[in-house]
Every structure is written in structure tokens, then in C-alpha cells.
Design goal:
Belongs to the glycosyl hydrolase 9 (cellulase E) family. This protein has 15 helices and 17 strands. By secondary structure, the chain is α+β, with helices and mostly antiparallel strands. Helix 1 runs antiparallel to helix 15, helix 3 runs antiparallel to helix 4 and helix 5 packs parallel to helix 7.
Length: 588
């Protein structure tokens, strides 16, 4: 399929929200453009030359179309002899995307069969890692034996750690294209689903017509992961009792394709970490608050776990997960992190929001990530599982509470969003993501989506349209308005990716298997192109073009729960708006 030189959001536009497109052209002067529908010219204008975009390596113009008020199908935008893919204008544009992006989590479930009623027969599969699977699956997992985390130089990354306990850590979500399960990646993902539920519930109370099925699914998926995270705690009587194991995964990498129920590898619990423990403390406290109205017993269990794990993390403040990437064929990602002030801030913030207790208030106020502190919370590169202070700041700003400095917190979110709008205005492809070194990082689409959650938080704080416009434009970048003219979400757009790196959505390798399900976002361009496929195909290209839609290109084209979670949040918050507003709760 040829890529039109007019790049735009291939899914469509919201009525009343101004939008733009990008024209790739060598022409230096402005050129006329026309918006058409069914052979009729709807609107005309003149392009704005933007020169060379170094992130794309193209000379480009922008086409400032403005807002379309009437819904409709089959719009196209033409300029300089090129015509865009067709798109539509609809108020319900993002509701299907929110539902599909959330259904991805159900399909990632471990330990339970996926029936054809979930997403069709192509995605049905037996339960993975059950007691009947090789080595007992995840129902009886031992600790990694001592000396198994050795570098080539003989350094033991776990410093001789092992333990004698065996845990049932069944359930939860498979993290990504592999079948490992990682607490810190699960933590940010479940937090964003819980946050989406909390914000949508507030909108429903204010008059928005929110899909009840989506709300139920958000609760159910969050609980599924929370129950698994609770199982990852180190039992009493063991070394590091009360802390949380960092991860569970195979002894070595399985080949592609391998369905979960056919995984032949032994599974091991890896050493606990302070970061994993703080992740559980944060999301258990958040879950206790969000789920209390639906299951008081489970909420009480979560709050007890949050208190206990927070105390355990304070008692063991620097038990770090090492970089196990240096161990050959270790079977899982490292998720190493040496800076934990942000995790402590997040856990203290969620416990304070849930309990209102002064001890947690004192801890979050003393944290260097709090307003007035020395550690930056919002940076141009965005936030992710390793940098979670933004999660805390967003919840402190949007969840009603009695924090004395709440107005300063809310102002900090608005300032961060203002900076993102300024960055976005300088980017001809409409993205708020502009790393200071000019290089796109692993999971750049996830970083873009997380930046959009900042814009939508500012929209909720202020009620101002411009932040919603920015979020819509940023989502449009992921859905086609980019240097490659690709939608990075399966099933959405005329030209969408469909070969993301996965061991069981592997139709590229085995035609009896499906491609990833609709609503699955790809990691996206990555300047480092660490895998051989991407390095050979696009290594060294400008940042936006360091991408190839190939199942072997794991450094640019993997799928993960922590990239799909902000897609759920952004799509849902854009989809379910309060009547008469741009979609926010307004000033709260």
C-alpha cells in the first residue's frame, strides 16, 4: 500500500475540535489544500511551510483545517497532488477504541482459558501456566536458585539470594510479547486502568453517558491483576518477608511462536525489590479507594496490604532489581531501577488520598518529588514504569482530597501541560513528544500516550478546551499523522500495524495463529533499534522512521500492557464527555 503524503489521523476527528494534517513535500512555498467529501469540496485553505523536520527527515507543511461540526464519512484532504486516507467525523469516535484497547488485557490473562465469546474464535486458547502445564505452570513456582543470575564475568547479580518458599502466582496478565509477569509493569498498567475508572465515574456522576460495560470491565481487569500482585508477596518466615517478588518468568526465552499452555520452560520467582513492593503499596491503596463501593471486603484486604507493604519498603529502602540483560538468555526483561524516590512518592500519595492520614501526608511532603522539591516530575521524554511520580501528581490533582497544597499541585499539572502544548505546536506532525537529545526511546508510543494523560489531567483541572485539542492531536499522531503514515494501533486506520512482536499473536510466522487483536498499540519508533531485524531495516534513520512492522523487530514493535493502559485512558476520557463540555469534569 502506498503511503499518502498527506498524513493525518486515519480514524477520524471529533466534531467541533480543530485539527491539522501534515504534508510531506519538497515545495518551499505555501500550496493550496482542499477538504472533500463525496466529490464535493467542503473547505479550502493554504498550507503553512514548516521546513525540515529533523525527527522525520522530511520537509513538510502543515494544513490547519479547523473544526468540522457536522458528523460524516468519507472525508479526504488533498494538497500538492496527494490525497489523504479517508476519515470520518463522529462524536463516538473513540468509544470502540477504548473498548478494544481494554479487551487486550483480558486476552493477556494468564491461568484462565480464553473462550471464543471474548474476541472471536481466532483468539480462543487454553489456559496457560496452570497446574497441568509443564513444571506446574505458575501454581507452584520456586525461587531462582542461587548462582543462576551470573554475568559472563561470574558476578552474581542477586548476591547469593535464593529462598526455600514456593508460591502460587497464577493469574495476572502476561506482560508483553513474552509470557513473563512483572510487578512494576503491572503496577503502572493497573494504576492507569483504576485511574480511568475513577475519572469516568466522576464524569458519570456529573451527567456523562459512560458505557457501563466499560466501567465493569475496568474494575474486573484491575482486580485480576491486583489479585496476582498480592500473590507475589514474600511469605512470613522467609528472608525479606513482606516485600514483593520483582517478577516471575521462564528460565530462558521461549521461541516464537509458543502459546502459553505449551510453554515448556521452568518458571522462577526472582529476588524481591523495594520498587516492586512500593508498586503494590501504591496500587493496593488506589484499588482500596476505587473498588470499595463494589467490594468492601476486597478493598479492606487491599488497604491492609498497602499499609504492610509500604512499611516493609520503608524498612528495606534500597533492595534494587539489577540489570539482568547482561545475563545470557535469562528468559525475561530486567525492569531495573536505581532511583526510587518517585515510587515512594507515589505510594505515599495513594495511601494519603485513600486514608487521609497524617503520616502519609508527612511522607509525601518530605519527598523530593513533591511540589517545591528538587526532582522533576514532568519531563519532555514523558513518564513510564520507571518514572512514576507523574502518576502521583496527576492523582493528587484530580482526586478530591484535603491536601493543603492541592492548588499548587494542580497548577504544576497545568504548567506541565502548557509546556506540552508549546512543544506540540513546534512539531509538524502534532506530537507532544520531543526528547531533548532528539532520539526516540523504546516504547515511544507509550511515552506519547502518557504525555497525553498529562494534557487530559490539565483539562480536568481547568475545564479548558485547548488541552483536549492537544490530546486529540497527540492521539492522531499515533493513529497516522506521523512520518511513516502508519496507524500504530491494530484494526484502527486504513494502514495499521499488525505484526507486533508476540509469541501467540503470531500470524506472520504461523497462519493458523491470529495477528494481535484490534486495539493493540505497538511500541513504536526507537532510535536504538536493538534487535537485528529493525537494525538491518531502519537502523540509523531519523527518529520517527526507526520502525518496521515485523514480528522479529522486538525493540520497535512489541506489545505490552503498560503501553495499552494509557491508550485505554486517553481513548476513554476522549470518548465519554459531559454534555455541553469538551469532555472534562471541569474545574474540581
Amino acid at each position: 500500500m502506498s503511503t499518502p503524503r498527506v498524513r493525518l489521523d486515519q480514524v477520524g476527528q471529533l466534531p467541533g475540535v480543530p485539527f491539522s494534517a501534515t504534508l510531506v513535500t519538497s515545495v518551499a512555498d505555501p500550496v493550496p489544500w482542499r477538504l472533500e467529501q463525496g466529490g464535493h469540496v467542503v473547505r479550502v485553505g493554504t498550507s503553512v511551510p514548516r521546513g525540515l523536520d529533523p525527527s522525520a527527515g522530511f520537509t513538510v507543511h502543515t494544513l490547519e483545517v479547523g473544526a468540522l461540526t457536522a458528523p460524516g464519512e468519507g472525508f479526504t484532504l488533498a494538497a500538492d497532488g496527494a490525497t489523504s486516507h479517508p476519515f470520518r467525523v463522529a462524536a463516538d469516535l473513540h468509544a470502540p477504541l477504548a473498548a478494544d484497547a481494554l479487551q487486550f488485557f483480558h486476552l493477556q490473562r494468564s491461568g484462565v482459558a480464553i473462550g471464543p465469546e471474548v474476541a472471536g474464535a481466532a483468539y480462543a486458547r487454553p489456559a496457560g501456566h496452570t497446574a497441568a502445564c509443564a513444571h506446574g505452570g505458575d501454581t507452584r513456582v520456586p525461587c531462582l536458585p542461587a548462582g543462576r543470575a551470573l554475568t559472563a564475568d561470574g558476578v552474581d547479580l542477586y548476591e547469593g539470594w535464593t529462598d526455600g518458599h514456593v508460591l502460587d502466582v497464577s493469574g495476572g496478565w502476561y506482560d508483553a510479547g513474552d509470557q513473563g509477569k512483572y510487578v512494576v509493569n503491572g503496577g503502572i498498567a493497573v494504576a492507569q486502568l483504576l485511574g480511568t475508572y475513577e475519572r469516568l465515574s466522576a464524569r458519570a456522576a456529573a451527567g456523562a453517558q459512560v458505557d457501563g460495560a466499560l466501567l465493569r470491565a475496568l474494575r474486573e481487569e484491575a482486580r485480576w491483576e491486583l489479585e496476582w500482585m498480592l500473590r507475589m508477596r514474600v511469605p512470613a518466615g522467609s528472608r525479606y518477608a513482606g516485600l514483593v517478588h520483582h517478577k516471575v518468568h521462564d528460565e530462558a526465552w521461549t521461541h516464537l511462536p509458543t502459546l502459553p499452555h505449551r510453554d515448556p520452560q521452568r518458571r522462577f520467582l526472582h529476588r524481591p525489590s523495594t520498587s516492586a513492593t512500593l508498586n503494590l503499596a501504591a496500587v493496593a491503596a488506589q484499588g482500596a479507594r476505587v473498588l470499595a463501593a463494589h467490594d468492601a471486603t476486597f478493598a479492606a484486604q487491599l488497604l491492609t496490604a498497602a499499609r504492610e507493604t509500604y512499611a516493609a519498603a520503608l524498612a528495606q529502602p534500597v533492595l534494587l532489581a539489577p540489570d539482568t540483560n547482561v545475563v545470557a538468555d535469562f528468559g525475561g526483561g530486567p525492569y531495573d531501577d536505581v532511583h526510587l524516590d518517585d515510587e515512594r512518592y507515589w505510594a505515599a500519595a495513594e495511601l494519603y488520598l485513600t486514608t487521609g492520614e497524617s503520616a502519609y501526608l508527612a511522607d509525601l511532603r518530605a519527598n523530593p518529588c513533591h511540589v517545591g522539591g528538587v526532582e522533576p516530575v514532568f519531563v519532555p521524554e514523558g513518564y513510564d514504569w520507571k518514572d512514576v511520580a507523574a502518576l502521583a501528581r496527576i492523582d493528587l490533582a484530580t482526586v478530591p482530597g484535603d491536601l493543603p497544597e492541592r492548588e499548587e499541585v494542580r497548577a504544576s499539572v497545568v504548567v506541565a501541560a502548557e509546556d506540552l502544548l508549546a512543544t506540540q505546536a513546534a512539531q509538524p506532525f502534532g506530537t507532544p513528544y520531543a526528547p531533548r537529545d532528539g532520539r526516540y526511546d523504546w516504547g515511544s508510543n507509550g511515552l506519547v500516550l502518557n504525555l497525553l494523560t498529562v494534557l487530559l489531567a490539565a483539562a480536568d483541572v481547568t475545564g479548558e478546551d485547548r488541552f483536549v485539542r492537544g490530546a486529540t492531536a497527540g492521539l492522531g499522531h499515533v493513529l497516522g499523522r506521523n512520518a511513516l503514515g502508519l496507524s500504530y494501533v491494530t484494526g484502527y486506520g486504513t494502514d495499521a500495524v499488525h505484526h507486533q512482536h508476540s509469541r501467540w499473536y503470531a500470524g506472520q510466522l504461523d497462519p493458523t495463529l491470529p495477528d494481535p487483536p484490534p486495539g493493540t498499540v505497538s511500541g513504536g519508533p526507537n532510535s536504538s533499534t536493538q534487535d537485528e531485524v529493525a537494525a538491518a531495516a531502519v537502523g540509523g534513520l531519523p527518529a520517527q522512521r526507526c520502525f518496521v512492522d515485523d514480528i522479529g523487530a522486538w525493540s520497535v514493535n512489541e506489545l505490552t500492557i503498560n503501553w495499552n493502559a494509557p491508550l485505554v485512558q486517553v481513548a476513554a476520557l476522549l470518548a465519554y464527555r459531559i454534555p455541553g463540555t469538551t469532555g472534562t469534569t471541569g474545574p474540581a
